Amino acid sequence: MLLKRLTEYGDRIADDLPAEFYREKQIHWVLDIAADGLTAKALNRKVSGRRRDQVVSMPVPYVQRSGTKVPPYLLVDSAEFVLGVPKKAKDGSVTEKDKDEATRRHDAYRQLALRWADGAKTEPAAQAVKSFLATGLPAFDIPPDMEAKDTVALMVGTRWLHQLESVQRLWAEEVRARKGGAAERRGLCLVCGEHRALLATIPEPVKKGAIPTAGGSNEGQLISINAPAQGRGGTTQLVNTPVCHRCGGRAMAVLNHLLASDRHRRRFRDDGVLLWWTKQAEPDLALDMFFDDQPEASDIEDLIDSMNEDPDPTAAELVDPDAFYGLSLGLNNARLVVRDWIDVPLGQAKKNLAAWYADHGVWDGWTGKTRYFPLWQLALSCGRWQGERYAPDSAPRGLEVDLLHAALHGIRPPARTLVLLLQRVHADQRVDAPRLALLRLLLNRSPDPQDHLMHRLDSDSKDPAYICGRLFAVLESVQSEALPDINTTLRDKYFSAAVSTPGVTLRRLFEDSGAHFKKLRRDKPAAHYALEFRLFEIYRKVMTDLPGHLDDVQQGRFIIGYTHQRYDDIAQRRVAAERKKATVPEQGTPASTSDTSA
Length: 598
What we know:
The chain is α+β, with helices and mostly antiparallel strands. The chain contains 19 helices and 17 strands. Mean pLDDT is 86; it is low at 315-319 and 591-598.
């Protein structure tokens, strides 16, 4: 199914794909051959790292090659093949073995190029190449700074020879011959369902470096069975996976195209990549927003509203022909690892994304608005807090991939996520908006309805853990009002203990708050009245049943209750300050504008 979806997408974007068995590659040298083929110039197109915008890069003939006698590419190849430049050791010396191998490779390149020239007799450029290989090459001076590994492309006049239709046609035939095996097999292709010549091996791997990996970066094969123990019935390569030449080449071309696309690719910060596309011609804006590193809150709210207002998504899927495809890949040595494959109606994908945002949105008391966070920030919130930010690369390995899987499938993240998050909260003594968002997501996707919490303060909640969190927040506010310049706060000293064992900790802090209220009664009577009323209002709900210990999920509800209360207190102070500012007249403005002439 995966290969079928790739080839279907390839048929749709055929104009954007390179020619069959071509791949984007940097050109280091241009061999500019004269029209008569008697002379040629080597034009250096190498650029330094500072001038990457001047790199000459284009699709050129390519196929995976290996073995002791590596075959050539057609026309565009390394200088070792094109001009017989031998490899050099680090000290600049050249061994006889390397000279012999360069000669062998150049001879093979020359034979393939002449085969094209002989078959394209009406092509003037082909005859120029034939003349150059026969008479011009022996007198050609190889530039001293040309290296054996440099890529050399041929040009006659103003035309790149590898872009000629005759070259593309011969190269496709050559690849089919190489990848069809010693004895050509014909059969039913599992991808297109037609009887065609079948591949013995996949012709093109994934480009080196296209998939982030913690280990060494290599080219990767989607299907690679090169040992009898790996194949069904002891068979190797594609015997049990019949794929025709067209489908195999097209699927890998599309895979590399997606890996090079900024719009259809999401590279994970530690390891792996996600590719996505849709069945219809234009990707959906909701998907673009989800894969953006900093989505706009207004766009997210529009998506959530659209899922609430539209007809039931299940009914809509029956008539909606569009679909969403997602492919998550990793790399193990030289083999691709398909971690996840998603094939769902587009309506269901949008429904899952809307639910993802609705489940983790956090109301911010400072702004009075709901905040949403991208995947990478939710994953990083499980990392180590370092002064003013999260320490780079401190997020648990693979967590971003796990969260993406949960978002696209509409399921709960792995159980380890809650444990990791609580560990960091206890270690850092910090609960911020991204951590609160991830915590709310984890609880909202719990099978227990009691864990499902609103995005802002729920003053009617009867959950003891949630109420204990609120109680601790008010006790912290009491201390802050009474002792604004204190160095070590309640949160610094007692937060972890209160979260784990609220029964003992909160009862003690409640009793100790009397000293703070005594100071507030003298210095800030209004604050004393408001805080005392709020504290006793909350404490009465749990005073006879303070829980002794909280498990991980209950600790999560405690932390959410604590943060909700803090944000609500912030919002109330903000509203009070705005109200006070509105009632105080500006300097020079009359206190009242009422008519007193009567």
